């Protein structure tokens, strides 16, 4: 597969703030790539560099095989962008803004435009100033999807959408993927990325800290196991890769612990020695992935520690 | 998530808050507004105060001996002189005091009006438009508190200026500038400021946008100024009595010291403020009196081109300035005939006219008017040229520039409208002036002559746009510095005539190089050079825009 986006060692500073500090990102053609990170991690800055709106201080970036700064205009005809905070022209209607954006990009599929407006339940005759945040977001989403872009750059596109519209959005992105388009979806809404993304990259403080398929990432993390045994399970704390072991009742018949991806087998074998009555295992959610990466930050702010300590099954 | 320990500042007690107290919280809002304007307002007040003092001091050097003052009277006693100063009654005894009232008051009244309008819109409509008012109104704040606070701040600022002027001028010890006159002179400013603050209180209710609200109020100031200019320069001054600026000028500080015209101002201000409060109860928070209309669900073909799109964004302002300048030109044109009749018999006039430019009476007057019309057109040009900057900071450039639209074409669309539209409003000003000038003098040849005279300023207008583009491309945060061009052009082109600035100051302004048609002869060389300079500046500015980061929210 060819790479739709390849970025390596990207640096960008604004005055004394280092927004990007050696960021890497690879997006294969035809995949939906989740771009995860907390606010201020550098997601929007990266996307703006990919759009040629900002010029990187150093590092290499290629989008669809072209240089995003030098070939910006030619490139923009092949991609569509939805900003996280859409601002519209107060005097233009939503329909006019959709047409304007799509046609300046180089074309508009009228049928698809009508269908999308219908599905997103958008009134295209209202003036820009009359739209709520969610409706402004819909305008940008419809404009981006109504044209035949090869690559969609979506920067937290569903901020402000209600849950029903969120579902519509997921369907629409699924269709785009089926049509062979590449999607870079930045988000801090984990459930969304989890449903849509083939692969994810997690960024933090302007750097990519993790990248891979969800399966790969899960492998790197811990599964939470909750077990009820006939006899109190002992000796688990002696096993390598077991964390946060807790006994949930007086007798010690119920335990909960987190175990590293590669150690699940050993841990379960050990449990069988005590006669398993019930066994619940939780695969790590993206939330836990993120918590693990940002755990130290949260801990520093006095918000508990890493994964597993909150431990409530979900 | 965060358990912030910082306690929010406790809301100041706003007196006994009854359920229906529409003014609850006004005092807190006043203090808040004063805090937000703690730099802006003092700068305004000090600039007006010091500007007046410096000018008064200048009078002493310029018109030290009686012979100079007699010369000044002869220059001023012409339609052109009276149009740009004040009523003729001041000329009867032209002391330094009456010079202040005559030459400065009309001009500073406009600036005080501008200050008051901006204060009121900033603390009312602008707050609502950004949604901050909603947040504040959800607390214990009465329905009328915002408007009452904004008007109070305007009153305080105007009173502060009035007292400063009264004390400062009286303290200068100039001949003819006494304490009683200074007190009235100071309060003339406050009276004019109050009227326009109250006008803004009305316009802030009408549209949902701060820019529209201040624009409408500024248009009222403009009309008030043009009415007094027309009334003072020709006829019997009846038109001046329709203008609040005319009223304060007719209090004749240092001459007659009559206070009653200020009562007219107070009455009008009270009426407008009351209207503002009443109107504000007839609308929702954030909405204007005019309801939002629905629009077309699809874009026309023209809209999807950079130029068509820019025209769409600019059309309201373009139409407003076009109509305004046409009317302004027509008003000046209507007194052109009077001007000629009035001056025909006066012999000594020739000498005074030589200083203005030579040629005939009407032509010299016309050249003077042309400077004023051009500066207004330049204000339009700068506003239009800075539009891409406001689009950028509002975050509306970003989605456009992520399409197949290059930066140069995007900005180019706006600049084409700024330059073409600027030329268009200039032409309309010339046509308005020409049509009604030709009618009032019975000289049909004036129409092409005056329209041509206006168009001669187009290259200087383009240079103004060019300066704005360079700032936008290379120093975007300093874009507003482009305002210096029309402001400077006004100061040297208009006040410079009265205060007799040296030539080099005139040459610094692009407008200073334009031949002063119709009084002077046509000269193509400076126009060609200005056009080349404009082209170079635009090229340079776009080159800067191409290589810088887009500023994003």
Automatic annotation (TrEMBL), chain A:
GO terms for molecular function: ATP binding. Its main location: membrane. Residues 5-230 form the ABC transporter domain. Transmembrane segments: none annotated. CDD domains: ABC_DR_subfamily_A. It is a peripheral membrane protein. Keywords: Antibiotic resistance, ATP-binding, Nucleotide-binding, Transport. Pfam families: ABC_tran (PF00005). It is found in: Cell membrane. It comes from the Bacteria. Belongs to the ABC transporter superfamily. This is ABC transporter ATP-binding protein. It comes from Streptomyces fimbriatus.
């Amino acid at each position: 597969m060819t790479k739709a986006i390849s970025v390596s060692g990207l640096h960008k500073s604004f005055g004394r703030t280092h927004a990007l500090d050696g960021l890497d990102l690879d997006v294969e053609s035809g995949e939906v790539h989740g771009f995860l990170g907390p606010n201020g991690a550098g997601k929007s800055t990266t996307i703006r560099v990919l759009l040629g709106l900002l010029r990187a201080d150093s590092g290499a970036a290629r989008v669809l095989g072209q240089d995003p700064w030098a070939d910006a205009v030619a490139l923009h005809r092949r991609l569509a962008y939805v900003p996280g905070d859409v601002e519209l022209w107060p005097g233009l209607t939503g329909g006019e803004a959709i047409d304007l954006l799509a046609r300046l990009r180089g074309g508009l599929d009228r049928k698809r435009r009508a269908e999308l407006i219908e599905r997103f339940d958008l009134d295209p005759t209202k003036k820009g100033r009359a739209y709520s945040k969610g409706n402004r977001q819909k305008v940008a989403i419809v404009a981006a999807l109504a044209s035949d872009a090869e690559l969609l750059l979506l920067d937290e596109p569903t901020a402000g959408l209600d849950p029903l519209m969120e579902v519509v959005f997921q369907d629409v992105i699924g269709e785009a993927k089926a049509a062979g388009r590449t999607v870079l979806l930045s988000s801090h809404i984990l459930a969304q990325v989890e449903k849509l993304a083939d692969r994810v990259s997690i960024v933090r403080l302007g750097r990519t800290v993790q990248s891979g398929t969800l399966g790969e990432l899960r492998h790197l993390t811990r599964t939470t196991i909750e077990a009820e045994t006939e006899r109190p399970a002992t000796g688990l704390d002696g096993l390598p890769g077991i964390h946060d072991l807790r006994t949930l009742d007086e007798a010690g018949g119920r335990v909960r612990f987190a175990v590293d991806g590669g150690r699940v087998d050993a841990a379960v074998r050990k449990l069988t020695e005590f006669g398993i009555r019930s066994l619940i295992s939780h695969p790590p959610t993206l939330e836990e992935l993120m918590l693990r990466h940002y755990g130290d930050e949260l801990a520093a702010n006095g918000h508990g520690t890493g994964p597993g300590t909150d431990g409530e099954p979900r | 998530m965060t358990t912030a320990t910082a306690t929010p500042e406790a809301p100041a007690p706003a007196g006994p808050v009854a359920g229906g107290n529409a003014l609850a919280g006004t005092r807190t809002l006043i203090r808040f507004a004063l805090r937000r304007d703690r730099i802006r307002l003092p700068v305004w007040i000090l600039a007006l105060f010091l500007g007046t003092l410096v000018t008064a001091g200048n009078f002493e050097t310029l018109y030290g001996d009686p012979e100079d003052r007699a010369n000044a009277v002869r220059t001023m006693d012409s339609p052109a002189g009276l149009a740009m100063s004040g009523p003729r009654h001041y000329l009867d005894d032209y002391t330094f005091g009456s010079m202040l009232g005559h030459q400065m008051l009309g001009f500073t009244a406009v600036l005080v009006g501008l200050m008051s309008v901006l204060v009121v819109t900033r603390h009312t409509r602008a707050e609502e438009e950004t949604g901050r008012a909603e947040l504040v109104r959800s607390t214990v704040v009465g329905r009328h508190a915002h408007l009452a606070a904004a008007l109070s701040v305007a009153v305080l600022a105007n009173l502060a200026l009035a007292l400063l002027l009264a004390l400062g001028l009286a303290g200068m010890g100039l001949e003819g500038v006494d304490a009683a006159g200074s007190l009235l002179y100071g309060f003339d400013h406050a009276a004019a400021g109050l009227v326009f603050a109250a006008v803004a209180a009305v316009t802030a209710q009408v549209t949902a946008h701060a820019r529209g609200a201040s624009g409408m109020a500024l248009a009222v100031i403009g009309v008030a100024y043009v009415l007094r200019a027309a009334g003072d320069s020709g006829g019997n001054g009846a038109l001046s009595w329709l203008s609040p600026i005319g009223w304060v000028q007719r209090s004749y500080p240092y001459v007659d010291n009559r206070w009653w015209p200020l009562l007219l101002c107070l009455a009008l201000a009270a009426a407008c403020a009351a209207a503002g409060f009443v109107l504000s109860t007839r609308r929702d928070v954030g909405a204007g009196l005019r309801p939002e209309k629905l629009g077309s669900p699809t874009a026309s073909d023209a809209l999807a081109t950079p130029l068509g799109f820019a025209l769409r964004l600019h059309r309201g302002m373009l139409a407003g300035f076009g109509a305004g300048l046409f009317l302004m030109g027509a008003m000046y044109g209507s007194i052109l005939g009077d001007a000629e009749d009035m001056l025909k018999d006066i012999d000594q006039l020739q000498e005074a006219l030589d200083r203005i430019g030579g040629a005939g009476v009407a032509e010299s007057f016309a050249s003077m008017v042309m400077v004023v019309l051009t500066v207004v057109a330049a204000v339009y040009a700068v506003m239009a040229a800075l539009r891409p900057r406001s689009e950028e900071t509002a975050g509306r450039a970003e989605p456009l520039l992520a399409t197949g639209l290059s930066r140069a074409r995007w900005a180019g669309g706006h600049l084409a409208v700024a330059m073409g539209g600027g030329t268009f409003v200039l032409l309309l000003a010339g046509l308005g002036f020409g049509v009604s000038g030709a009618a009032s003098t019975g000289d049909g040849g004036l129409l092409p002559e005056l329209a041509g005279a206006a168009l001669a300023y187009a290259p200087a207008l383009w240079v103004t746009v060019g300066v704005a583009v360079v700032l936008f491309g290379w120093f975007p945060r300093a874009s507003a510095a482009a305002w210096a061009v029309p402001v400077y052009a006004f100061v040297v082109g208009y006040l410079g005539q009265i205060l007799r600035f040296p030539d080099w100051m005139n040459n610094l302004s692009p407008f200073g190089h334009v031949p002063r048609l119709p009084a002077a002869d046509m000269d193509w060389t400076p126009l060609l050079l200005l056009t080349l300079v404009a082209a170079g500046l635009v090229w340079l500015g776009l080159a800067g825009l191409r290589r810088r980061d887009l500023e994003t929210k």
